[in-house]
Design brief:
It contains six helices and no strands. With 94 residues, the chain is an all-alpha fold. Helix 3 packs across helix 5.
Length: 94
């Protein structure tokens, strides 16, 4: 297994084992640069808005991002059922 795939699997195990939101935030802040955290948060907001039924053009205006970025988020929601399920569950619970 290539090192990057192995490292990603290891990270997935650590993140999945982190049940405390405060501890998870600490992990994310330690692993990601400030810019990466902003981009990750923006991507999260994007998929939540898509899941809630907001139109892509409205999302683009609200978040100040391109339709290409929104299309990528939409594609990932369609391609990855576990991702879609987790986002949908979060949106429903809000």
């Amino acid at each position: 297994m290539p090192m990057s795939k192995k490292a990603l699997n290891e990270l997935a195990v650590v993140l999945a084992d982190t049940h405390d939101p405060s501890a998870m935030r600490d992990l994310l802040e330690a692993l990601l640069t400030p810019r990466e955290r902003v981009r990750l948060a923006l991507r999260w907001r994007l998929v939540c808005l898509l899941t809630s039924g907001m139109h892509q053009r409205s999302i683009a205006r609200q978040l100040g991002i391109s339709l290409c970025n929104i299309t990528r988020g939409s594609r990932e929601l369609k391609r990855r059922p576990v991702f879609r399920q987790k986002v949908s569950q979060f949106v429903r619970d809000q």
